[in-house]
Amino acid sequence: MKIKPTAEDKLIAYYRYFSLSLTSLMYLLDQTGPSIIYKSLIIAILVMFAQTFSFCYRRLRSRPKTLVLAVSIEMVGIIALTLFTGGYESSFRLYVLNPVLIAAGSLSIYFGWSLLLSYISIFAVLCYFFINSANRNFLEIVFINGNLFLTLVLTVIIMQIVNRMKRQREESNARTKETMEHIKSLYHIVETSSQHDFMNIGQVITDYVVKLTKLDKALFWFAKKSGEPAPQSRQTGWQQEEEQFLFSELGKHEHEWRLQREPIFRNLPGLGDFLLMPVRMSTRFVGMIGLKLESTEGLEGRRWYIQQLIFLSELSANILERHELGVIENRLIITNEQNRIADEMHDSVSQSLFGIVYATHSLKESWKRMSDHELEEQIELIHDSATKVAKELRITIYSLSSKKSGGPTWLGMVRSHLKSLSRLNDVDIDLKITGDDFSLPYPYHKALFRIISEATGNAIRHGAASRVEVELSLKPTWIRLLICDNGVGFDTDLLWIESEDSVSGLGMKNMQYLTQSLGGDFQLSSNESTGTRIMISIPVGVAELKNA
Fold first, then answer.
1. Which member of 208, 312, 510, 537 lies 3.0 to 4.6 Å from 192 by CB, making a disulfide possible if both were Cys?
2. SS3 labels along 250-262
């Protein structure tokens, strides 16, 4: 596989060839030593070695142990070259900066200094014992090469400072990129908040805590609401048999948690060290978000976790408040609609029915005294009134039914959304629907719309699909949804194991949570370059029984 050189690789390669050209020119112009042909042969060999080591360094930059060996081999070769071409008077003395730059810029600080000190020691000793025609002492040889040694020391210091700044910049860029990915995934969390079940909210938040902090275990403990049972607490990372003990221990301190407003560290007996953060809406205390700390975590790491839990606490409070406001809004909509229906029925139908009832009662009392003609006339009047009531009732029903009055239906909104998505992204979306959604309860409408929107959006954004097929079958007792695309696909095993590396991973979990909250089955199949297939089956009525 061809490895694309980085800017750092190019810079080091430029310096390598520049220094080799300069030192080789000085070596050729030197009147002493071997012949020009012999020198040219040495320079040709050096060029080949320079190309070899440049290629090796690019290949080995992600394998530090092997890179250490390669740098050490090049250093030994340069020492031999320097001694062979004149020792401390060699034109290739400064060529040693090449492995020094690699060691100081790409490897550990200890190896960089060890390599430099080893070179200075070995070079000085070998020059003293083998290339010392003027019979200088050891200190004189060190002093003669002082400028070289000082240059090497300054190079190591500067390169390590630059390397540290580079690492800090890379960490900052990675943190910024990670934060942006998390901000994008907030959409998925908000869309997961169900109007009829807190399970999705708590579970997705705990998964998100693990995703953000990179720790193994997180929890969302819900406190009891006044006059109502507590929503089901959720956790990520614990075994099922540990869950009950975990939440019972948290429940023992409920009074203390209600008084807390700042993050706290707490050791729970039998469970370990925890960082806990209260979640408060504007109207009440909701519960605690927490994560289990590793024993090796330092102070800086814990500060980072505190910042993330504060952020997630505020996010959770906003999501839950949005959930409750949505529930209240739906109740008000239903109440207003009930009042409107009652007013319409009272103003039209009930008045007419009262007239029929009164006429029938009068006829019952007086029919014996009436002639046949009067009786027939009275019955005809009652018949006309009943027909009028039936007509008014039919008009009222038609006005309330979006399906019959021509107003926007749920299936119409699904078609309109997919049509807009297709037009905006130049993607062919084929929608096939069998059955009728007229009697389908609201939670199913909401969940199905989110799943269809999420799946088609993922196929376009992450799968780069050019065609998406959506098949929706609506039956009185079952709903089946099939979504297929011809996108690039992905490895589904990596999705559930390493979902922190993919924004779409959280979207898939959201779809699974929504399906399971309605008692349904979620099946996902995909392979790289073969597209993605999502199959969902939901029994109608299970959600109502669950929340009854």
1. 510
2. HHCCHHHHHHCCC
Which residue(s) pair with 433 in the sheet? 472
pLDDT at 481 over 90: yes
Could you read off the pLDDT of 172-185 as tens digits, one per residue? 777 677 766 666 66
CA–CA gap between residue 213 and residue 182 (Å, rounded)? 11
Q: Using CA atoms, how far apart are residues 332 and 427, in angstroms rounded to an integer? A: 39
DSSP character string of 107-130: S-HHHHHHHHHHHHHHHHHHHHHH
Question: What gap in Å lies between CA 324 and CA 308, rounded to an integer?
Answer: 24
CB 92 within 8 A of CB 85: yes
Cβ-in-10-Å burial (0-12, 13-18, 19+) of 441 comes to middle
Report whether 517 contacts 494 (CB < 8 A).
Answer: no
Q: What is the mean pLDDT of residues 354-362?
A: 75
DSSP state of 228: B
- Token pair of 39 as six digits: 């020198």
Per the listing, tokens 């975590």 go with 297
Contact, 316 vs 286, CB < 8 A? Answer: yes
- The angle at the Cα of 313, spanning 310 to 317, to the nearest 5 degrees, equals 145
161, 166, 167, 172 alpha-carbon torsion, rounded to 10°: 130
Q: 0.85 cut: is pTM over it? A: no
Strand ranges of the sheet holding 521-526, from the earlier edge strand across to the other edge: 428-434, 467-474, 478-485, 532-539, 521-526
Is 306 within 8 Å of 299 (Cβ atoms)?
no
